[in-house]
Amino acid sequence: MSEAATGESAVRVHTAVLAIGGNLGDRLANLQSAIDSLADTPTLAIAWLSPVYETAPLLAEGADPQDDYLNAVLGVTSALPPDMLLMRTQAIEEALGRTRKIHWGARTIDIDIVQVDDLVSDDPELTLPHPRAAQRAFVLAPWHDARPDDVLTGAGPIADLLAALGGAAAQGAARRDDLELLLP
Ligand SMILES: Nc1ncnc2c1ncn2[C@@H]1O[C@H](COP(=O)(O)OP(=O)(O)OP(=O)(O)O)[C@@H](O)[C@H]1O
Ligand SMILES: Nc1nc2c(c(=O)[nH]1)N=C(CO)CN2
Does ligand 1 have an atom closer than 6 angstroms to the CB of 100? Predict the structure, then answer.
């Protein structure tokens, strides 16, 4: 986190990693819409964007089969405090038709806050870092492509976490270089 003096008040700029994914409708268009909406957010700037991965769905125990997801990861800076960032990501999910009926159900778009600065919180409304990120190749693989030296707060280098899962392919995650997301 950095502080920029602006007259009388100081604005805290947070650095966050966001994971986006979806497996309903036009998956690439939905990811692009999420990116466009994030970029439209006051004070928020997208610093980097990963390649797109197609990933086998992680399902809840006993769940019906689902289609594959498209996933990507992006880094942002923003003056929004973490709770306001969550409000914004949830508003974007709703605007893109996300419903919350079934745990890990199929969805048009999901935006997870993977980490913010080096904050650690067990607040169920916003747990930081995201409690399941270290086990998810659909987060680690695209993140690692974009930022190979990054560290997941409290868990370690993402390169090591991905290796511990056996790599992307072992987890059903395949990079789709034919699918392009654009930064607005
Ligand atoms: N780091 C986080 N990022 C996003 N939501 C979070 C986070 N920590 C806690 N939550 C809370 O989790 C709740 C459920 O979110 P959501 O329905 O998107 O979960 P999910 O994406 O289906 O599952 P998962 O959290 O395993 O990815 C939200 O209401 C939100 O308040
Ligand atoms: N492949 C994949 N599976 C999932 C995903 C996801 O983004 N990708 N998100 C889930 C809930 O957040 C549940 N399962």
Answer: yes
Here the ipTM equals 0.97
Does the Cβ of 69 fall within 6 Å of ligand 2?
Answer: yes
Q: Which two tokens stand for residue 120?
A: 């650690």
The letter for the amino acid at 173 is A
Query: DSSP code of 41?
Result: S
Domain-wise residue ranges, the chain? 2-175
- Element (H or E) spanning 53, and its range? strand 53-55
Q: Dihedral through CA 76, CA 81, CA 86, CA 89, nearest 10?
A: -40
Side chain identity at residue 65, one-letter code: P
Superfamily of domain 2-175 in the CATH hierarchy: 7,8-Dihydro-6-hydroxymethylpterin-pyrophosphokinase HPPK (3.30.70.560)
Question: How far apart are alpha carbons 3 and 22 in whole angstroms?
Answer: 34
Q: What is the pLDDT of residues 134-149, one digit of tens each?
A: 999 999 999 999 999 9
Q: Ligand 1: distance of its center to the CA of 13 in Å?
A: 23
55, β-bridge pairs: 69, 173
Evaluate if residue 2 carries a pLDDT over 90.
Answer: no
